[in-house]
TrEMBL record, chain A:
PANTHER family, per the entry: CARBOHYDRATE TRANSPORT ATP-BINDING PROTEIN MG119-RELATED, D-ALLOSE IMPORT ATP-BINDING PROTEIN ALSA-RELATED
GO terms for MF: ATP binding; ATP hydrolysis activity
Native organism: Diplocloster agilis
Taxonomy of the source species: Bacteria, Bacillati, Bacillota, Clostridia, Lachnospirales
UniProt keyword list: ATP-binding, Cell membrane, Membrane, Nucleotide-binding, Repeat, Sugar transport, Translocase, Transport
GO CC entries: plasma membrane
CDD domains reported in the protein's UniProt record: ABC_Carb_Monos_I, ABC_Carb_Monos_II
UniProt protein name: Sugar ABC transporter ATP-binding protein
From TrEMBL, chain B:
Protein name: ABC transporter permease
UniProt topology in membrane: Multi-pass membrane protein
Species assigned in the record: Diplocloster agilis
Keywords linked to the UniProt accession: Cell membrane, Membrane, Transmembrane, Transmembrane helix
Principal localisation: membrane
Amino acid sequence: MSEHVFLEMSDVSMTFPGVKALDQVRLDIREGEVHALMGENGAGKSTLIKIISGVQQPDPGARILMDGEEVQFPNVHASIKHGINAIHQDLSLFPNLTVAENIYLGRSKNGKVDWKECDRIAVEALKRLEVQMDIHELLGNLSVAKQQLVAIARAISLSSRLLIMDEPTAALSFSEVRMLYEIIRKLKKENIAILFISHKLDEVFEVSDRVTVLKDGKYVGCKDIGELNESTLVQMMVGRSVTYEALNQESYAAEKVLEVRNISKEGNFKDISFTLHKGEILAFTGLVGAGRSETVKALFGLNPPDQGEILIHGQKAELKNVTQAMKHKIAFIPEDRHHEGLILNMSMEDNITLSILNQMLGKSRFISSRKRAGISGEYVNTLNIRPGQIYKMAKNFSGGNQQKIAVAKWLVTKPDILIIDEPTHGVDIASKTEIHKLLKSLAKQGMAIIMVSSEWQEVFALSDRVIVMRHGRIVHEDSTRDGDQNLMMEKAILGEVKA
Amino acid sequence: MKKLLERRETSVFLILVALCIGLTIYSPTFLSYTNIKNVLVSNTAMGIMAAGMTFVLITAGIDVSVASQMMFSATWLALLAETPLGNPVTIVLAALLIGLVTGAVNGALISKFDIHPIIITLGTNSIYRGIILVFTNGRWLMNLPKWFTGFSSTVFGIPLPVVYALLIFLISAYILKHTYFGRSIYAMGGNREAARYAGVNLKKTVFLTYTYTGVLCGAAGLVLDSILGNCQPSGSNGWEMNVIAAAVIGGTNILGGYGTIGGTVIGVLMMGVIENGLVVAHVPTYWQKLVYGLIIIVTVTIDVLRKKKADSRKQMIEID
């Protein structure tokens, strides 16, 4: 690794409608270094690498210098011309094409495809990785890990100076991760720089030379790996910028509403046991892919477990489908509101009353508009949905108000147990606080709430107890009042606490 | 060899061969020169359009205006042939040019406004047909000149329309396999976002795909006129469904990403042989539609079930 900085970016901003994904971010890359890009979910890491690789264009005013000269990356070809290529998170590959063509695609001479050249490039790229593979196999027939290797082979065949990887090890097993580290070291020797996004601290400390941290779309800092240890890095990532009003008071009753005993499902979660009390908010946290959503979906009959039992109010309950879960007065508000929670092209009233239409019948046995308007109006007031126009289409409300409509849609069923996945994902700060207060007041009225959240501050401000998951298992359970936040984070990320 | 056997085209081809053998045993006239020639010639226009449809389906698009585009070309060509400008050279040029225009209009509307192709082509399907019906008042254009029907004469025992179709199949297969445009079609149908990340110009690819299909429909119009010796502007109604069916039977994935010209040719022959076989076997023609429907559903269902089984190895979390 030399000290020579060949790529320098500054004042990089990126505005999406209503959101500033990146705000005056900077980044510099030295020749042949391994540079980690870190930050929590939504920090803007993926957006930044999309800009470097020419997939997205930054707001005007961004400065990008390549060897001291100002350049632009208006499209993917421009980046490739500068020797830069990226592997994006959602594997940017083609299941219907062969391994060789996946590596070759995008190159052509005068619009013609040279199949000999295609095979040659593929063989050479795989040779550099020291991977054995049938280059004429269809990509779709390979395992995810092998597909990842093809993606790397494609990227290194296109990148002579900088290879970018977005969470390259997310889908790899332990031995394949070792292999990837070897590849990274080899590329480094060839003086190719590597920029990679990762959530795994051990990985960052193992392979990287420098780390740049982003938070909420802003640049936090760039440090040599030698200057950092695991806790100082977590500190940089989490920061202390946003604080919520602490609402946790551990005020729940002793009455057990839900008891889960040793439920397991292959490839989803294993040996999950916990208890939920009346009036309690229980948080499930951990990294993305730790099995949290899979676990809570099991409680709503969407992902029935293979083993174990679930007791509701002390009685064994069967939760094989949503209808059974609803009979047990369980409600579930999914994370992806647009696709799973709301019907965007229907009015707020239609959405709110959808799950209780059979209770909306008038004397004539037809659906009574008066009943529906009455119920909808009631929830507009209690949840403070703005604007309170019940006939307006759901898609025309802001993110925060859409979330409230999704909540209302389930509150009308008067559940005993409310499961909510990432309650404030993609919601502005003001609405976040409002949603927090609403959940707390529901708990006070006796509802038992399970919340999945990746946001530590939210977990600590809102919940009474917290369960930390990692690789499909519960690794820690604690009360939020006397629990140690840093300790839990380390458990979620590392799986164990290093002394 | 193993890969060849795994392909969908192979199983459809084997069914086709079995069908032909069965028909020959049942009625030797099936294998006669006249009958074979008849089957091949009467399916050339369909086959030429199906080649274009294969391109469209691989991009994960659809074009329901192909039959209207063909009749649009056929009608103007029949009208042109009656004028002093009509001669073999102008007719060929006109056929390609008319197809180019109808296809380019489809392609431009679909790529420019990013509207689902079924909407645009449903619209243009009606518009192209409407224009020729208004212009001709639905009148049949009879007695095309001798030089026009000469396009479908037989030379050294080989009917010319079959030669045209073969030529178009070869060109189409070459484009799909050996050009950047062809590979972009597969890339786009396999993973649209990834194609964008790989630098494929999606709008241009869509435009070219529908334009090329239009050109083939224009050519199909010429072939149809020359075979029939007349032109019925309201004819060939519903052919678009048979064209789509032929491509799908031949292994083209209606959701995009997979398909070959060879497979489509087998699909066209399959439909042609079934139609002819029912006649040879003296089955009332009313059975034809029923049999088509069964063939489509059975072949596609087998394929989908096979794929589902392969996809069932879902992403799982590693529990340690």
